[in-house]
Amino acid sequence: MNTCVSHFMILSNELRALKSNKRAVLEPAVIMLAPFAPHLAEELWHRLGHETTVCDAEWPVLNEEFLKTDTIVYPVQINGKHRGNIEIAVSATPAEVEAFAMQQEFVRRNLEGVVVKKFIVIPGRIVNIVV
Amino acid sequence: MEYAPREIESKWKAWWKAQRTYQVHNHSPKPKFYILNMFPYPSGAGLHVGHPLGYIASDIVARYKRLKGFNVLNPMGYDSFGLPAEQYAIQTGIHPAVSTEQNIERYREQLDNIGFCFDWNREVRTSDPAFYKWTQWIFMRLFEHYYDLDADKALPVQDLAARFEKNGNYGVRAVCDEDTPKISAADWNSMPEKEQQLFLLKYRLTFPEESYVNWCPAMGTVLSNDEVKDGVSERGGYPVERKLMKQWSMRITAYCDRLLDGLNEVDWSESIKEQQRNWIGRSQGASVRFAVDGHEGVHIEVFTTRVDTIYGATFMVLAPEHDLVPHLTTPAQQPEVDTYIKWTASRSDLERMSEVKRVTGANTGAFAVNPCNGQKIPIYIADYVLAGYGTGAVMAVPGGDQRDWNFATHFGLPIVPVLDAQQNLDEAADPTKAGCYINSGMINGMTYEAAVPTLIRWLEENGLGKGKVQYKLRNAVFSRQRYWGEPVPVYWKDEVPHLLDEKDLPLVLPAIDKYLPTESGEPPLARAEGWRYTSEQDNAVHEYELSTMPGWAGSSWYWYRYMDPHNDGEFCSADAVKYWKCVDWYIGGAEHAVGHLLYSRFWNHFLYDLGLVPEREFAKKLTNQGMIQGRSSLVFRAKEHFYEEYLWIKVLQPYFPEYGPMRIPANKAEESFTYDFAFETNDLVVEVVSWKQSDKIEAIRKTAEADGKRLLVLFIEELAECINEHERTAAKISRALNSRDRFFMTEQGPQYEQLFVSYNLTAKYSPECFSKLHVDVSMVGDDVLDLSRARQLSMFQNANFKVDPDGKFTCSYEVEKMSKSKYNVVNPDDMVAQYGADCFRMYEMFLGPVEMSKPWDTNGITGVYGFLRRFWGLFIGEDGAWLPTDEAPSATNCAPCTTASKK
User: Fold this and answer.
1) For chain B, which residues make up each domain, given as ranges?
2) Which element (helix H / strand E) includes B688?
3) Are B864 and B842 in contact (CB under 8 A)?
4) Is B61 an 8 Å CB contact of chain A?
5) Contact in structure between B465 and B289 (CB atoms under 8 Å)
6) Nearest residue in chain B measured CA to CA from A61
7) pLDDT tens-digit map of B799-857
8) Where are the alpha helices (DSSP H) in B567-692?
9) CB distance A21–B3 less than 8 Å?
């Protein structure tokens, strides 16, 4: 439960950073805080317009959709050595990833004067170029 | 608008109360969840921040489960019978019920402060007659039952008597006293009623018996094994001795196997399970009869888990209390044996078993005969063998048992190997079961697997022993010679105990004049005037049982009472128990591993046998919260030696390098010269001494005069006074150097007597310069002592403080048990007043995993407070504006990350 407290702190900081004051985001946060800080949660719950206790609220359902991000960062290795990262859409195919990687300045610089033997893309994980 | 916890919290506390937000119902379409804290003993000291840790954790789980759609029972009550209230009553004459009530009020106030979701409507108190009526009722059921091994459950004693009538106890497989004789139906039927009743006591699950107990003379009562630590009472630290007394006992041994097997059903920590397994201590072995040389017909029975090592038995050890000791001891050995027995009487079982460093014992001068090879081996007594465990006698095999090895080495007895795989017996015992037997007669060359059945068969065939399962667990003594406990619902008639009529429950504690045993040594209840039972059975008046129940009686079933706390006709209605079943999650201290947690399981199994409860195990899951240790603050008080070092480091070295003061070593024989600095280019000697030691000052003067030296006396009180102004001391020395006077002394007594040195400054000095003293942690923040508050304390009345250059006085800290004497108790009320209950709750969780022990450190609480302020700030702007909008959210809901981390 000690980790919950730290997660709350992270959550609160993230929400601040996002300047997110949207009710749909804050309301579940109040419910989740209620077991830990029931008084504060009850106060905010009522200010959010509820008339019954926060104790009988419904625990928020985790929405997997929200956890998905649109882009992904691939580390790029040349002969097993990490040379840099590329950020590309999650949906990109291996061919698209390869094409995008070859456009990158740091990749081109490292490949000058050598022959690419193999270009390996492990989807969602890593790009490895063997020369 | 700032986050203002005080207003918010009092407002919602009142609202919850008015709305009955935390009232729990026994009927609900929702699934049930029963979370329970071990209820506290309401001590006079109130709660410190360590106590609510488990309560907060369970409160969070309870609220979480409720949000998840469960009907949650999270009750609280008080284990309100106990020794401290009785001790207090003895000292003050105040009835324990009165002081207990006051303590409960204080507890309640403190608990309410923290905002728990307890349903107080369900509060229970073990000392409340409406509660202990049912503790007495369960006792009566135990008295009425015996444990039948064929049915593998408790059955009515009435049925047993009916079986005796027909067949005697032949064919009855039941748990009973070891000395129970075989009787025929004729034997039984010819017994007078009284004899029959006494015979049945040998089977009842609770029964009076003569047994060795931990007797605490100072408290005038018996203590259970888990209430004795290191030979003294856990509470109060009074000496405890072994004494034979008539006591009520609980036949918990009947449930040994079920208590062991049940551990596989529950989600408890392995360490608690292991402690219970060891405490029960099941072992497969054999009992063997050793004849005694020169005593025709006398046998010593031993129980051994390693009958295979019998050829390696080179001596025998009896418990000092063993019946045969007086008969066997030779006249020559009598004095030694007597002295040893006397010493042993002062030690508790636990202490005796856990002693590992010292080897003690005495030779009786007698010899036992090994039944397997006829060898004569000496008989010793030693207190590592317990009278109540097994037969109170041990065949000692030093080759295979370290304790026996230590004993043999100490007393110069032979050590014989019995297995070819045993290694280095010169250095230690080797308990291995590997290899083949040597020096072992009939089992030579065999392996362990073959040897054990061979030996047991041979022993059984020759009537010298038999295979046997044995347990370390003994029946639990159930009597206390105290006042403040449940009266036992029993009256005595013709030396036979009888139960009260059920309609006469509760048997309420009578009023007495003094809470002490009577002059004749009877329990306090003997003081109650006219306290007698009139039985409807015979219309006669009888004496009540005068002992009361132990502290663990009420706590062995209380969780059922929360399910149905106001039921006057049953301990808990069938409906309520059917709905709530058992505790889903139990939270409490690990120190109850072999006390409360074992007794509770025992009673629960019994109630299960009677069909009164649906689950064999009362608590499915158990979490043992860690201890919150105190973070004590310590201040450094200067001892005399400090002033010498101070003078050298801070005054003489920096201010008088050109004079080159000579430091005379501190180890000089004459104490008056310990603090002595002479100046090379001058005839001045500087002496440091306390103002209070006027006789010493005179001696110093005379010595200086005789040596023809000029003398400056610096009083440590003076130095203490101007400790933060080194130049003042330097100026004084400087004046003395430039003067022609022979002696320099202060005429007036300096103001300060004691000096405390900031911890940051102590590193330069040797450790013997200081004594460390505890200071109240409430006066310390970030290890800095609040000097203005400290000066008001008597310990600092005539004190000055040597402070850091920035004027702060720092303390060192130590992590230790939270206790009043260490001034490290942090009161939750103070925390709540300062930061609010929400912050306090979160901070307790923030400290670390609930199961872990960790120090309380107020320094981090501001971080949590900051979080709550920021969280508040997400909703309410600095100007008090309401910030939330109804806009549709973008995909930034990272909130679910907390969902997973729950539990």
Assistant:
1) 283-470, 629-816
2) strand B684-689
3) yes
4) yes
5) yes
6) B896
7) 999 999 999 999 999 888 888 888 888 889 999 999 999 999 999 998 888 888 888 88
8) 574-580, 596-609, 640-646, 653-655
9) no
Give the CATH H-level superfamily of domain B283-470. Answer: Valyl/Leucyl/Isoleucyl-tRNA synthetase, editing domain (3.90.740.10)
Of A35, A40, A67, the CB nearest to B60: A35
Structure tokens, B755: 């000096």
N- to C-terminal Cα separation, chain B: 34
Residue with tokens 């090879």: B373
The residues, ordered by sequence, that sit 6+ positions from B237 with a Cβ below 8 Å of its Cβ are: none
Residue A15 scores a pLDDT above 80: no
What is the token pair recorded at B530? 């006219």
Instruction: Tell me the CA end-to-end span of chain A in Å, nearest whole number.
Output: 49
* pLDDT exceeds cutoff 90 at B262: yes
Task: Report d(CA B572, CA B799) in Å as an integer.
Answer: 62
- pLDDT (tens digit, 9 = 90+) per residue, B437-468? 999 999 999 998 899 889 999 999 999 998 88
Query: ipTM score here?
Result: 0.73
Q: CA nearest A53: which of A72, A34, A75, A73?
A: A34
Spell out the long-range contacts of B882-891 with Cβ–Cβ below 8 A and sequence spacing 24 or more: B882/A47, B883/A21, B884/A21, B884/A22, B884/A23, B884/A26, B884/A48, B885/A21, B885/A22, B885/A23, B886/A22, B886/A23, B887/A22, B887/A23, B887/A24, B888/A22, B888/A24, B889/A20, B889/A22, B889/A24, B889/A25, B891/A65, B891/A66
Nearest to B63 among A12, A35, A48 (CB): A35
- Tokens 């073990």 appear where? B126
Return the number of other C-beta atoms located less than 10 Å from residue B844's C-beta: 29
- Amino acid symbol at B802: K
Separation CA B475–CA B153 (nearest Å): 17
Asked if A28 reaches chain B (Cβ–Cβ under 8 Å), the answer is yes
Which one-letter amino acid corresponds to residue A14? E
- The reply to whether residue A53 touches residue B871, judged by beta carbons under 8 angstroms, is no
C-beta contacts of A5-8 below 8 A and 24+ residues apart = A5/A36, A5/B842, A5/B845, A5/B846, A5/B864, A6/B846, A7/B897, A7/B898, A7/B901, A8/A32, A8/A33, A8/A36, A8/B842, A8/B867, A8/B871, A8/B898
Is the preceding omega at residue B506 within 30 degrees of 0, hence cis? yes
A-proximal residues of B, 840-879, CB under 8 Å: 841-842, 845-850, 864, 867-868, 870-876
pLDDT at residue B537, as a whole number: 85
CB B715 within 8 A of CB B746: yes
Whole-model pTM? 0.74
Tell me the three-class secondary structure of B826-887, residue by residue: CCHHHHHHHHCHHHHHHHHHHCCCCCCCEECCHHHHHHHHHHHHHHHHHHECCCCCECCECC
Q: How many CB atoms lie within 10 A of CB B26?
A: 16
pLDDT at A100: 83
Domains and CATH numbers, chain A: 2-66 (1.10.730.10), 71-130 (3.10.20.590)
Looking at per-residue pLDDT, the higher value among B670 and B798 belongs to: B798
Paired strand residues for B376:
B369
Secondary structure tally for chain B: helices H, strands E: 28, 36
Least confident of A13-17, A25-29, B249-253, B588-592: A13-17
d(CA B438, CA B434): 12
Q: How far is CA B716 from the centre of its chain?
A: 46
CB B846 within 8 A of CB B838: no
Distances, alpha carbon B711 to alpha carbons B366, B660, B664, B749, B845, in Å: 77, 17, 15, 18, 63
